[in-house]
Amino acid sequence: MEHFAGLDVSVKETSVCIVDDTGRIVRELKVASEPEALLPVLTNPLYRFKRIGLEAPPRWHSLVQAPYLPWNPY
Questions:
Q1: Of 13, 26, 40, 64, which one has the fewest beta carbons inside 10 Å?
Q2: How far apart are CA 15 and CA 55, in angstroms?
Q3: In a domain, 73, yes or no
Q4: How many domains are contained in the chain?
Q5: What's the CA angle centered on 50, arms 5 and 45, to 5 degrees?
Q6: Is residue 72 part of a domain?
Q7: What is the pTM of this model?
Q8: Which of 58, 59, 13, 49 is nearest to 69 (CA)?
Q9: Taking phi first (over 0 means left), then psi (-120 to 50 degrees means alpha), and beta for anything else, what does residue 8 get?
Q10: Low-confidence residues of the chain, pLDDT below 50?
Q11: CATH number of the domain enclosing 52
Q12: What is the dihedral of CA 59, 63, 65, 69, to 10 degrees?
């Protein structure tokens, strides 16, 4: 089963919503807006992410440029 994640990034906290390929919400949580806090969620072997979308303020680049996250936007 494939999964999709939506990240709503703010300065202090990121809201994460994970849905399956039928659109059912699998998990919702809030974590600190730091790569180290997102890593356990986005690399969890329970989820096979097809897409990860984010809505973010100017600080978003520090999250997607982290070399150990499971995507490379460049």
A1: 40
A2: 10
A3: no
A4: 1
A5: 75
A6: no
A7: 0.75
A8: 49
A9: beta
A10: 74
A11: 3.30.420.40
A12: 180
